[in-house]
Specification:
- It is a single chain.
- This protein has about 300 residues and is mainly beta.
- The protein has 2 domains: about 180 residues, Thrombin, subunit H; about 100 residues, Immunoglobulin-like, CATH 2.60.40.10.
- About 10% of the residues lie in helices and about 50% in strands.
- It has 3 helices and 22 strands.
- Strands 5-4-1-2-3-7-6 form a 7-stranded antiparallel sheet, covered by helices on one side. The chain has a 6-stranded antiparallel barrel with strand order 8-9-10-13-12-11.
- The C terminus is likely disordered.
Length: about 300
């Protein structure tokens, strides 16, 4: 029974908006690739990838989430046999197994335990959650979102919290049934980071250009959007036209800045200063109008 049930359990790998990486567990509830996990596992996610027991991977779309109940539904391409659910709450003393991914590196393990009470309160991500099934089981944080099954392989609840004293809490199936019904006809929506938003500021120019050493310029790029990489083009010109340019490459995480400088040096620039204005002279600096990101990381 356990081996068959484990075939329907996945590892849920998440990249969050602060670029931190977390992992949890999940399980299939539909033959069309629908999965259940804990909402706190995929909270503020920019990317969600599931790993099946056979090692195959798939990018997941988000169908729905209920942070109050701490449950979310994902959708992946493919077909995997789903687990069956049991809406009747388990009684105290019921033998159970927690299937999941403890520590993020041992997917699809099983931990035996028993039900302590069918209705308790637990602290999840700093919020008190009532009406949960309390378990006596040695579950780990990476098991969050995994199924709590009975001896017949039926899902009784979804693990939502675990502690180090062999105690865990789980959302009973009857608490998430309404969510699953409301999500049953919804398509998944792609989970992706926001577009990069890069602004330029702090333009600096030393005021002198050397015919042999070029013109050195500095600029600061600040990113208020999603992760980005790109190029900034700085140009030296005078009233009669272009003299030279240089480029700066940047890689920016959200909320970060990067200051850099480059030196424009060209045959045109050397000729201009040597033949028209002497070796050294100040000239205006122009920055390209489109220094935006070339892509996202």
């Amino acid at each position: 029974m356990l081996s068959t049930a484990q075939d329907s359990v996945v590892t849920v790998n998440v990249v969050r908006s602060d670029l931190s990486k977390v992992s949890g567990s999940g399980f299939y509830v539909g033959k069309d690739g629908r999965l259940i996990t804990a909402a706190h596992v995929v909270a503020t996610a920019w990317k969600v990838e599931v790993t099946n027991r056979d090692g195959s991977r798939a990018i997941a779309a988000l169908v729905g989430e209920n942070s109050t109940n701490d449950v979310a539904e994902l959708l992946v391409t493919g077909s995997t046999p789903p687990l069956t659910t049991q809406t009747l709450r388990p009684r105290a003393g019921t033998k159970i197994f927690v299937l999941g991914n403890p520590g993020g590196n041992a997917p699809n393990t099983s931990v035996p335990g028993k039900v302590l009470t069918s209705s308790g309160t637990s602290n999840i991500e700093g919020v008190l959650k009532p009406d949960l099934v309390e378990l006596d089981v040695g579950a780990n944080h990476g098991d969050s979102g995994g199924p709590v099954i009975d001896e017949w392989g039926r899902v009784l609840a979804v693990l939502t919290a675990a502690s180090s004293n062999n105690r865990a809490s789980a959302l009973p199936v009857d608490r998430m049934s309404e969510d699953l019904r409301s999500w049953s006809s919804l398509p998944g929506r792609t989970i992706a980071p926001p577009a990069p938003q890069v602004q330029l500021s702090g333009f600096k120019f030393n005021g002198l250009c050397d015919a042999y050493r070029g013109c050195t310029m500095q600029v600061t790029a600040t990113n208020t959007g999603g992760p980005a990489f790109g190029r900034i083009d700085l140009e030296v010109s005078e009233e009669f036209g272009f003299l030279g340019s240089c480029s700066l490459n940047y890689t920016l995480d959200p909320g970060t800045s990067q200051t850099a400088s480059c030196t424009a040096n060209s045959a045109q620039l050397a000729w201009y200063f040597d033949n028209r204005h002497g070796r050294i002279r100040g000239v205006p600096v122009l920055v390209s109008a489109n220094p935006g990101p070339l892509g996202t990381t």
